[in-house]
Amino acid sequence: MGKEECKTMLDALNKVTACYRHLVIAVGGTSDSQNLREELKKTRKKAQDLAVANRNKLTTLLKDKTINKEDRAEYERLWVIFSTSMEFLEVDMKKALEFGQEFPLNVPKRHLIQTGMCGSTSAVAARAMSAQNMKYEADSSIDVVDLKELENEISQVGEMMEEMEMKVNVAHWTVEAKQDPGAELKSTISVGASSIGVISINEESKSGCEPTKVLAGVIFTAVLLIAIILAFCVIKLS
């Protein structure tokens, strides 16, 4: 029961951190707005709450001397995944801070990053927050106040990661993966409605060029070129 609960909590953290990364890349682009900054704030805090819950659960289990060798190996594997997710979250929080400082909302609108993205980002944040709709309170200084909070939270995340290493000593290189690299991409298991997207290997393979289509394209191009040459000759002779 403990392993399944840990996997569920860790899966939730991974999805929220992925949503947060998706939102961060929109800062300074055509989708940037006060709503986006609110979404970033709410998603970031949700990720931190899940991180604390994961840390407490895994720390308790890994400190338990009564668990068998197989369970301990599984918990250590989950710990490595958790610590890696925390590293990604810290990097994205630092990136959000840097972008927020470079592109404040209280200056004339000028999109310096042309990401090609447009429209609302509420759907992404709603997935992370497990909510259908997200409403925001008007706050014209969110890009000033929130950046100070973000700076403090980055320090807190760094301190938590250091504390994790001191409490639980799990060397990453000693943990063996249970799947081959990229095996999760071939899985047919549904990731649920909260996932950001679905990658289908079969669809990608079907989209490749088939030999018959390539041959037909070559023949069509050759016929077209001959027709153009003949038309040019007729016009020149006339």
UniProtKB/TrEMBL annotation:
InterPro entries associated with the record: RGS7BP/RGS9BP
GO terms under biological process: negative regulation of signal transduction
Keywords for the protein's UniProt record, in alphabetical order: Membrane, Signal transduction inhibitor, Transmembrane, Transmembrane helix
Transmembrane segments: 214-235
Family from the record: Belongs to the RGS7BP/RGS9BP family.
PANTHER family to which the protein is assigned, alphabetical: R-SEVEN BINDING PROTEIN (R7BP) HOMOLOG
Protein name (database record): Regulator of G-protein signaling 9-bindinG protein
Source organism (scientific name): Amia calva
